[in-house]
UniProtKB/TrEMBL annotation:
Keywords: Coiled coil. This is YgaB-like protein. It comes from Heyndrickxia oleronia. Residues 21-71 form a coiled coil. InterPro entries: YgaB.
Length: 95
């Protein structure tokens, strides 16, 4: 009977170890899932930052483009006026 009780006690200790390890594994898996979720959120935040940076850059480029367009228009209007003035000057020279 003593041997039987010892076997039961050994088995109970083993069962206790199994339950402890099973709980630890579940706890660690929950932590792993939480960390994965946080990592995904971090990636999303990084992507949002990159998008905002690109939007700022796009706005700057858009401003440059508008400025260039205005300059092209002014230059074109100047060229349009210049040939007529040049003809007038040639036809009626200033003395």
């Amino acid at each position: 009977m003593k041997e039987f009780n010892e076997l039961i006690q050994d088995q109970m200790k083993t069962m206790e170890q199994l339950l402890y390890l099973q709980n630890e594994i579940e706890r660690c898996q929950a932590i792993e899932q939480e960390l994965s979720k946080l990592q995904e959120e971090t990636k999303v935040d990084q992507i949002k930052k990159e998008i905002n940076e690109m939007k700022k850059e796009l706005n700057e480029i858009h401003k440059v483009f508008e400025s260039q367009t205005d300059e092209v228009i002014r230059k074109y209007q100047g060229l349009k006026e210049t040939p007529e003035e040049a003809l007038t000057c040639k036809m009626y020279p200033i003395r």
